[in-house]
Design brief:
Number of helices: 3
CATH class of the largest domain: Alpha Beta
Radius of gyration: 15 Å
Family: Belongs to the universal ribosomal protein uS8 family.
GO molecular function: structural constituent of ribosome
CATH topology of the largest domain: Ribosomal Protein S8, Chain: A, domain 1
Shape: globular
Order of helices and strands: HEHEEEEEEHE
Helix content: 10-25%
Keywords: Plastid, Ribonucleoprotein, Ribosomal protein
Structural class: alpha+beta
Organism: Scherffelia dubia (Green alga)
Number of domains: 2
Strand content: 25-35%
Protein name: Ribosomal protein S8
CATH architecture of the largest domain: 2-Layer Sandwich
Distance between the termini: 29 Å
Largest sheet: 5 strands, antiparallel
């Protein structure tokens, strides 16, 4: 039984990237849907489609010339056993701004750039680059 849906989703995407799979199936949860939408908005995945059973079919993005995945690394930061919080002034940058942190704030899930603009801190859920 899995207790951490976000970690499960990140692991599925990471494994599909390693195997150069085009699609990956992600179980439907609210947090998975919101994080996937942020990944799509930031350009790390091609698209998200809903399957008939309610799960998400995620089309991963690869560089057209080199065929390398657009996602180099995907990492869970705050875990159920060790929560990590940051205020808006102390939100770190991922690879000098190339990557993105996903934060859980009082206004919902936001990227690090959006949280800094809105001057919101929160729980650092994951990073992607």
């Amino acid at each position: 039984m899995k207790n951490d849906n976000l970690s499960d989703m990140l692991t599925r995407i990471r494994n599909a990237n390693i195997l150069h799979r085009r699609n990956v199936i992600i179980p439907k949860t609210k947090i998975n849907e919101k994080v996937l939408n942020l990944f799509e908005k930031e350009g790390f995945i091609e698209s998200i489609a809903k399957e008939q059973n309610g799960d998400f079919s995620v089309l991963l993005k690869y560089d057209k010339k080199t065929k390398k995945p657009c996602i180099t690394n995907l990492q869970r930061i705050s875990k159920p056993g060790l929560r990590i919080y940051s205020n808006h002034k102390e939100i770190p940058e991922v690879l000098g701004g190339i990557g993105v942190f996903i934060l859980s704030t009082s206004k919902g899930l936001l990227t690090d750039k959006e949280a800094k603009q809105q001057k919101l801190g929160g729980e650092l859920l994951c990073s992607i680059w």
